[in-house]
Amino acid sequence: MLKLKIVYLILCPFLLLTACSINQQVTPRASKSLTTTIDQRYRHATTQYKLMMDELPEGKLPKTFVKAQNYLETSGPDWWTSGYYPGTLLRLYEQTGDSLLLKEAKRTLALLAKQQNNAKSPDLGFIIYNSFGRAMQTIPEIDYHKVLLGSAKTMAKRYDPKVKAIRSWDTRQNDKEFIVVIDHLMNLELLFWAFRATNDSSYYKMANNHAETVLKNHFRSDYSTYQIVHLDTKTGKLKQRRNAQGYGDESTWSRGEAWALYGYTMLYRETADAQYLEQAKHIADFILDHPNLPKDMIPYWDFNTPEIPNTYRDASAGAISAAALLELCGYLDEAMAKKYFKAGETMIETLASPEYTALLGTNGGFILMHGAGYIPIMAEVDVPLPYADYYYLEALNRYKAIIAKN
Q1: DSSP 3-state assignment of 230?
Q2: Model confidence over 304-349: pLDDT tens digits?
Q3: Distance between CA 317 and CA 356 in Å, rounded?
Q4: Whether residue 183 lies in the annotated active site
Q5: Out of 10, 85, 169, 252, which residue is the most buried by the measure of CB atoms under 10 Å away?
């Protein structure tokens, strides 16, 4: 009885979170083609991940698939995408009840557990929250709770109260410069979880301060983003703004914009702070109203690259944006909610089409094709990516929940 009570207490914040995330305002006209095939999408994804499971070397996590060499590229547990594989397996298990997926998820969670003490990693939110956080919502265990809390404690060590931010990257100039990247908004969900789990307000303050520092420094007047910001370590003042994964320093890297959309939507959920909701709306409008967004709504890898339309799309930017929009629409009046719902629906319809969804038995077991990892250095170009699959399934889950609610 005591164990059940403890599990309830540690699961309760997730139950509240899920309830808040289900759309309460949209009365959607659902896509018939998508609603009638959504369960088939889960079955297709399950088959793919079982194929991947059979090819995965022991102790490794999937990173991408190199088609030309028919080679599943993998990473160790410390790579920033390592948590997406067990997280995706757990998402599929939630929909299918397939015990093989659960067994594999538990096996790979064990590979990741030691990362909770990796103080050198700026990516513990990516690695741990998307795996153990997902597990706590699906199969809650005290040990998973401990790993999440240990990870939050470790990540908190990268916070600087003078700069009011969490350091993204270590450099030789740590005493003079403090680097913050837009991607790491996604880490804040781990800190909010720690606040709910412990009632220690320091986690909340760190996450909120970091979000406000990003809000102040990473955005242009049109709500487009810089990926990387250099701040003065002693004063927190802005020193430099640039892009690494975008076309140029003044262009808008599409996945960075998607991280921002997802991040500020999540921040509104966690804080109910209206400035974060307004920011999320502005970012969404930048994406959806941009003249270079294709009609099928899957962005090019950068909104400003002069090679458009003869350049790469990024399925991961589309998947992240779709998941964010299908949450954001639940916080708005009906007119705006319908715009964002319809856009999210179009994105997942496109991703679920043969243009982006791989044939069974191909693509190294990944679900989606046409991800863009790091185009300026031609790394992970037009390939599957684990985070594209993860957020695609999250978007499908949110879509299904909205339809069921209405």
Answers
A1: strand
A2: 999 999 999 999 999 999 999 999 999 999 889 999 999 999 999 9
A3: 13
A4: yes
A5: 85
Which residue in 62, 8, 63, 22 sits closest to 379, CA to CA? 63
User: Residue 251 is encoded by which pair of tokens?
Assistant: 């262009």
Alpha helix segments (H runs only) across 272-355: 274-288, 315-328, 334-351
Which residue in 54, 78, 123, 296 is the catalytic one?
Answer: 123
Alpha-carbon span 332 to 309, nearest angstrom: 33
Q: Which of 160, 183, 302, 389 is catalytic?
A: 183
Helix (H) or strand (E) holding 88: helix 84-96
Burial 122-138 (b: 16+ CB within 10 A, else e): bbbbbbbbbbbbbbbbb
How far apart (Å, rounded) are the C-alpha atoms in residues 168 and 331? 30
Burial 28-59, CB ≥16 within 10 A → b, else e: bebbeebeeebeebbebbbebbbbbbeebeee
Q: Which parts of the chain have pLDDT scores under 50?
A: 1-23
Q: What is the pLDDT of residue 239?
A: 97
DSSP state of 247: S
347, 298 contact by CB (below 8 A): yes
123 is catalytic: yes
Q: What's the predicted TM-score (pTM) here?
A: 0.94
